[in-house]
Amino acid sequence: MSSTSFFNDLLSSIAEQGRNLLDLRRERVPSGKGLGDLCEALLSQRGEASGVALARDVLTSYAGLSDAERYAFFHDLKTRFGPDVDGVAEVAAAVLKTPGEEALLRRLHALSEPRRQELIRRLNLAPGGTSALVRMRTDLLAAMRADPSLKDVDRDFEHLFSSWFNRGFLVMQRMDWSTPAAILERIIRYEAVHEISDWEDLRRRIDLPDRRIYAFFHPALVDDPLIFVEVALTRAIPEAIPPILAEERAEVSAGEATTAVFYSISNCQEGLRGISFGNFLIKQVVEELRRDLPNLKTFVTLSPVPGFRAWLSGALADPESVACAVLSPAQIEALKEAGGTAPEEGLCEPLRALCAHYLVREKKSGIRPLDPVARFHLGNGARLERINWDADPSRNGQRQSCGMMVNYLYDLGHIEKNHEAFAATGSVAAASAVSRLLKAVPEKKKAPDPVA
Q: Any idea which residues carry the catalytic annotation?
């Protein structure tokens, strides 16, 4: 962290010198449009010190804009800082006449890259630039909900962030009670799956022999985790979350544990949405646990099924759906009456079967599972091991999945094979217990081929 602090101090010093060179004594830019003009100046700047000073001015001015002004700025990035279309057409024609000409190909590549990519690179040179750009993308993602055409701008942020937050730059750290309080406070705030109620709750998750938290950090965000995973060391694969989170429970010594349970994974930076860290983090944690605790034989999750109840509600509105084929009219009525509360026990087996169907057969964009958590773990090479009834009795658990949770098993001997099959065809690796549940659910009939 000290080396990063030194680097930021150095950039700040350069920025101050650049400000003196440029004599930049103007007021902060008051509008998104005016900020675009300052970005033009930054792209035309050749001096390093003055460039850093301009980059800092852009980011400082952006921070003072209103939501409407930020939207205007993003729109300016889209319309004003895209690729040079006319230049691309001209050089492309020249390439067709003289194929293989390296200078022309390099020129074509330079012109086809949106100018905003180079702008973002230069903004990143400002002190605290990386963190500021991550926050800027958070605003951009919010603006995209109202204006999807800004996706063009977001693609450039995502492209550059994928390189800047490459696995090679990330550092994994185990959190413990000696971790700086500022970081621990962020862990409490960022927990997205099972709320950490207070400091004592956090202590139970990181300061006991059978509980651990690991996080990824980036050198440019030294005190702000990117993602973290919570691990419970147990003697068996768990069927429910309350025993793991219980205040009063029998602790398991690290030497007695045979199973490592990943029961919560939280992404911390909204501005890094779509940049994958979790697969690397889980695999690195597995390797560290295997090295420290060779008695661990099983690596498994206890995961939510966040989209199941919403899918089920939609399916019950269609009399031709598989849900209506599995559930009787009385069961459907009982489920509707339950609303967001726990369904009656008699619905256990049909709902577990429908959950298996939802996870294995319901697809997004052709071959990927509809459920986001399933996409993540199955894409990492895990196996859908077990569907647990009444595993999360919390209000959120009932609202999301009728209280069900899932175990995904990371079988180290089959991870790569499962991953390759999933990537190629969307094939879901499922245990025999899940396959038996699927037998109770009729498969959807394929639509007939259109008549020529």
A: 303, 377
pLDDT tens digits for range 157-171: 999 999 999 888 999
Single out the residue of 441, 268, 283, 287 nearest to residue 352, CA to CA: 441
pLDDT at 16 over 70: no
Summarize pLDDT for 101-126 with one digit per residue, the tens.
778 778 777 777 899 999 999 999 99
Domains of the chain: 2-164 (1.20.140.90), 167-301 (3.40.630.180), 308-438 (3.40.630.150)
Instruction: Tell me, letter by letter, the H, E, C secondary structure of the chain.
Output: CHHHHHHHHHHHHHHHHHHHHHCCCCCCCCCHHHHHHHHHHHHHCCCHHHHHHHHHHHHHHHHCCCHHHHHHHHHHHHHHCCCCHHHHHHHHHHHHHCCCCHHHHHHHHHHHCCHHHHHHHHHCCCCCHHHHHHHHHHHHHHHHHHCHHHHHHHHHHHHHHHHHCCHHHCEEEEECCCCCHHHHHHHHHHCCCCCCCCHHHHHHHHCCCCEEEEEEEECCECCCCCEEEEEEEECCCCCCCHHHHCCCCCCCCCCCCCEEEEEEEEECCHHHCCCCCHHHHHHHHHHHHHHHCCCCCEEEECECCCCHHHHHHHHHCCCCCHHHHHCCHHHHHHHHHHCCCCCCHHHHHHHHHHHHHHHHCCEECCCEECCHHHHHHHHCCCEEEEEECCCCCCHHHHHHHCCCEEEEECCCCCHHHHHHHHHHHCCCCECHHHHHHHCCCCCCCCCCCCCC
Q: Taking Cα atoms as reference points, which of 73, 192, 190 lies closest to residue 143?
A: 73
**Residue 176 and residue 178: Cα distance in Å, rounded?**
5
β-strand pairing of 259-267 with 298-301 = parallel
| pTM for the whole structure | 0.84
* One-letter amino acid for residue 112 of the chain: S
Please state, in angstroms and rounded to a whole number, the distance separating the CA atoms of residues 266 and 374.
15
Model pLDDT for residues 303-325, shown as the tens digit of each residue: 999 999 999 999 998 999 999 99
What's the rounded Cα separation, in Å, for the pair 218 and 133?
14
The dihedral sign for the CA sequence 292, 294, 296, 298:
positive
Reference 315, options 301, 305, 306, 326; nearest CA is 326
Tokens of 311: 């899918």
How many Cβ atoms from other residues are within 10 Å of residue 179's Cβ? 15
Q: Which of 72, 51, 75, 275 shows the shortest CA–CA distance to 157?
A: 275
Distance of CA 395 to the CA centre of its chain: 24
